[in-house]
């Protein structure tokens, strides 16, 4: 039997809400996964992409991850991983550096045997380049009793999918017993043509929409039998305060609701609906902070057109590009928006080819008429060349 922790979307380095405390929370969550791996003596930690939030993580985040990987190495627990869309760079990946240091294995089309299970990897591939994929994997070793593919993307039959799992499994040269996925922050599982397909979810809340507890999967392979269980992490509390205002009710009603919650060191997320009076977000944020909240975010959903009325933008002028990208990431975009964003940010596409790719994507969108969701990105400081 082979027993592994399946994690992903740790997004180490994400300075959510421009908060240094939140950035530390993402590293702490990854370290908690490592702690659990050592405490429960698993055979490996399998990371399904987006170890870092950005392709240019800060030095403290790199050092924090290196320290955690060294602890895994000292416990003789291999770290198997692939590259997600947030961390992908033009050439060598940070994962390659960790591999060169003997602290990680980058999964690919060749099998990596752990116990009696062969693991393979499929890095994130932009939608515009998936038609060229052949899913050609090397045969597993003769003594492998189970096989697993680790991938990163939005796969069917789960929400916002743009990658056909059934077609991928049909085209693959290896019959997989399980597909361990990252990218979708919502944990879930389904059986597709006799293969278990599962998302582990994120280890920290990367958006206010992620209300459920964060965690990871414990996956056991016993011959061709796959057992998937969920384990939660103890992360910073988010208190979701939903207030529906009746006619004549206003800020005092919202403040009363805020005071009902224990907000000590929590992120307070206040959502306002209903027919009541206009509300000033700043007064509510101040009240939440007075109650001990680390941060407070107030959204009034009664704005014209149903869009959220946000408070004055909290712009970090030390990195205005990061502030803009975070705000864009909070918007729900169609699948066309997702594809255009991938095209513009894809380092493999030459600048001179971007316009043609964008025009092609727009034409395809009119034919497909599909919708999906956008995810956020951010910008940080250190490049791999700087680190080396």
From TrEMBL:
E.C. no: 3.1.-.-
Cofactor annotation comment: Binds 2 manganese ions per subunit.
Region feature Disordered, mapped onto this chain: 362-388
Annotated control of activity: Nuclease activity is regulated by Rad50.
All residue ranges annotated as the Calcineurin-like phosphoesterase domain in the record: 3-187
Class of this enzyme: hydrolase
Residues where Mn(2+) 1 binds: 9, 11, 50, 185
Keyword Protease appears in the UniProt entry: no
InterPro entries cross-referenced by the UniProt entry: Calcineurin-like_PHP, DNA_Repair-Maintenance_Comp, Metallo-depent_PP-like, Mre11_archaea-type, Mre11_Halo, Mre11_N
Similarity remark: Belongs to the MRE11/RAD32 family.
Complexes and interactors: Homodimer. Forms a heterotetramer composed of two Mre11 subunits and two Rad50 subunits.
HAMAP family: Mre11
Name of this chain's protein: DNA double-strand break repair protein Mre11
């Amino acid at each position: 039997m082979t027993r592994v922790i399946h994690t992903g979307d740790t997004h180490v380095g994400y300075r959510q809400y421009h908060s240094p405390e939140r950035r530390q929370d993402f590293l702490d969550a990854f370290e908690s996964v490592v702690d659990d791996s050592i405490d429960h003596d698993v055979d490996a930690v399998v990371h399904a992409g987006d170890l870092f939030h950005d392709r240019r993580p800060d030095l403290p985040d790199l050092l924090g991850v290196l320290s955690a990987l060294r602890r895994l190495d000292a416990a003789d627990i291999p770290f198997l991983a692939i590259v997600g869309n947030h961390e992908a760079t033009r050439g060598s990946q940070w994962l390659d550096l960790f591999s060169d240091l003997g602290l990680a294995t980058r999964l690919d089309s060749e099998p990596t045997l752990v116990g009696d299970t062969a693991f393979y990897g499929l890095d994130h591939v932009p939608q515009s380049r998936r038609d060229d994929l052949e899913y050609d994997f090397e045969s597993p070793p003769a003594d492998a009793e189970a096989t697993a593919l680790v991938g990163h993307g939005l796969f069917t039959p789960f929400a916002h999918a743009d990658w056909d799992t059934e077609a991928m499994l049909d085209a693959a040269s290896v019959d997989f017993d399980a597909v361990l996925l990252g990218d979708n922050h919502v944990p879930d599982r389904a059986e597709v043509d006799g293969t278990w397909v599962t998302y582990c979810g994120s280890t920290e809340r990367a958006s206010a929409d992620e209300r459920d507890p964060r965690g990871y999967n414990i996956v056991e392979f016993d011959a061709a039998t796959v057992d998937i269980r969920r384990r939660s992490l103890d992360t910073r509390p988010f208190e979701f305060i939903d207030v529906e205002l009746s006619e004549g009710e206003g800020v005092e009603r919202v403040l009363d609701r805020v005071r009902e919650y224990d907000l000590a060191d929590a992120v307070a997320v206040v959502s306002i609906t209903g027919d009541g009076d206009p509300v000033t977000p700043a007064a509510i944020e101040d009240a939440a902070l007075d109650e001990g909240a680390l941060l407070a975010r107030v959204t009034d959903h009664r704005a014209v057109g149903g869009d959220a009325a946000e408070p004055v933008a909290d712009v970090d002028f030390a990195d205005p590009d990061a502030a803009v990208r975070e705000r864009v990431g909070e918007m729900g975009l169609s699948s066309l928006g997702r594809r255009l964003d991938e095209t513009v940010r894809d380092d493999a596409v030459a600048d001179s080819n971007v316009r043609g790719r964008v025009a092609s994507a727009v034409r395809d969108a009119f034919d497909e008429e599909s919708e999906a969701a956008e995810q956020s990105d951010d910008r940080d400081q250190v490049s791999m060349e700087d680190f080396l």
